[in-house]
Structure formats: structure tokens, C-alpha cells
Amino acid sequence: MGFDVEKFVCSVSEDRTCALCHHVLDNPVQSPCGHVFCSSCILPWVVQHGCCPFRCQGLNTGDLTNVLALRDVILNMKVVCEYEPNGCSEQPKLRDYIAHIKVCGQRLVPCTNRGCGELLRSVEELGADKNNPCLCKPRVPCGGGCGATLKEVDNGHMCVEYLKARVHEQEEHVRCLEGELLRLRERLSARELELVSRIKAMRKRLQIQGIKLVQQARNMENVKAYTKTVPTECESKVNHTACDAILCVAMRGYPWLSVAMRAPMSSMHRFNAV
Predict the structure, then answer these.
(1) Following CA atoms 219, 224, 228, 229 in sequence, which dihedral angle do they give, to the nearest 10 degrees?
(2) Which of 46, 118, 166, 209 is the most exposed place for a label (fewest CB within 10 A)?
(3) Are 69 and 113 part of one and the same domain?
(4) CA distance 52 to 146
(5) Alpha-carbon dihedral of residues 187, 193, 199, 205, nearest 10 degrees?
């Protein structure tokens, strides 16, 4: 947005105002169709709509050109100081306006006295305040014993009203502290519940892990016991087979033995094997 027309000393012609905001042009740019706008006004428009505000033609940001000559003319126009109501009569150029405001003798500055809070009109008055008496400087404590620090010319001070105001301030402060304490307690309670929940969850996980470890240990013991019994059974089977073979060979050497006689011998062999 451009500059307020009312800030300028002389009247502003229409060709120096923005076609969008109707203020005095700030960093003017021109479209191919001849319209002039503030750069801060037209750029968002072009990005959003892609055309001239007057619907003349399509428009891109690259189509806009700076109007440097017009910008220099506007920067050389004189403006009214914002501290004119305080007594400033200077009329700086627009290009020098910011620098003037920083050093204007009528600008408002806070008093440096602790607890004062009043605004002084000029740097000179502020400097005088450091060495000479002024209306804003605190002077003496109240003679009534209320504890207030009064200015020399403060004749309207009332101790009762001052004390009431102080009591009200302290009550407000206490209420704020109580509210803050309540919020802290709520936060601590919520934190405590969260920690208890975490501890319970951790304890449950540890119990599950312990059960798994015990089960794994039992499985390992079963595996070890099984591996010890397997070789013994194999050896027993091998021994039984060898005995059967020897007995058969021996019996073949005595063909005269009847089947009835062979059966008991075979049974004895099985019994001995067991």
C-alpha cells in the first residue's frame, strides 16, 4: 500500500496515485497497458489473477517495469511530520522522513525516572530532566504513611484510594498465583498418572520376558536330555540284532534240533536281551 495523501504538504495529482489502493505510489511499476501501481499492490494481484486489474490483458510479474523517474519525483515531495501536533513545524522530503522522525525534537520519549512512565516531548526536555526538577519526576514519599511516592505537584493524592488500589493489585496477584498453582498441580497429577502407567507397562513387559526366558531354559534342558538318550537306544538295537545273528548261526550247526527245541532258545535270547 502507498503513502497517505493527507501526509503530503501539497496536493497530489492523480497520476501519482496507485490505481489499486489510491494512495501515493510507493515504488511504482507500470503494466504494458499503461497503468501504474504500487509494487506491493500489483504483484499479489498478478500472481492471483494473472491479468490487469482493469481487465485490459493478461499479465505476468515479468511484464511489470519500474518507473524510476516517477519514484524520484514522489520521494522529493514534502510531507508533514507526525509530531506536528506536538509543535514540530519541519516539512522533510519523503526520502528523509524516517531519518527526521528518529531525531525530531518533538517526538515523545519515556521519562528515564524509575516508576514514572510519563512521556516527554523532546530529547532536550529528557536531558533537562536528569539534572533539573520536572513534573514527572518522583520526589518524596507520602506523609500520610501509605507508602506512595508522590510528585511535588501531586495535590490530589488520597491515601485511602491508593491503599484500596494496592490491595486490589495484591488480590489480583494472589488470584494469578493461585491459578498458576492449580495449573501446576494439574500438570503434576497428569505427569504422575503418566509415569504410573509407564511403570505398569514396563513391569508387564518384564514379566513376559521372564516367562519367555524360563520357557527357553526348559526347552534347552529337554533338548539336552533327548540327545543323551538317543545314542543308548541305538546301541541297544544294534546289540539285539547281533545276538539274533549269532544265535541263528549256532542253531544252523545243529540241524537235528527240532523246531520245538529252537523256540525256547530263541525265547531265552529275547529274555536275556531285555
Answers:
(1) 0
(2) 209
(3) no
(4) 69
(5) -120
- Comparing CA positions, the residue from 19, 23, 17, 20 lying closest to residue 2 is 23
Q: Does 53 fall in a domain?
A: yes
Domain hosting 122: range is: 109-157
Residue 95 burial (CB < 10 Å; 0-12/13-18/19+)?
middle
Asked if the structure places residue 129 within a domain, the reply is: yes
Burial status of residue 168 (CB atoms within 10 A of its CB: 0-12, 13-18, 19 or more): exposed
What are the contacts of 181-189 at 24+ separation with CB within 8 A? none
Does residue 146 fall inside a structural domain? yes
Which pLDDT tens digit goes with each residue over 52-98? 888 888 888 888 899 999 999 999 999 999 888 888 888 999 999 98
Number of domains in the chain: 2
Over residues 107-119, the mean pLDDT reads: 69
Q: What is the DSSP letter of 109?
A: E
Whether the model clears a pTM of 0.90, i.e. scores above it, the answer is no
Q: Is residue 47 part of a domain?
A: yes
Amino acid at 57: Q
From 140, 157, 174, the end of a domain falls on: 157
d(CA 44, CA 110): 39
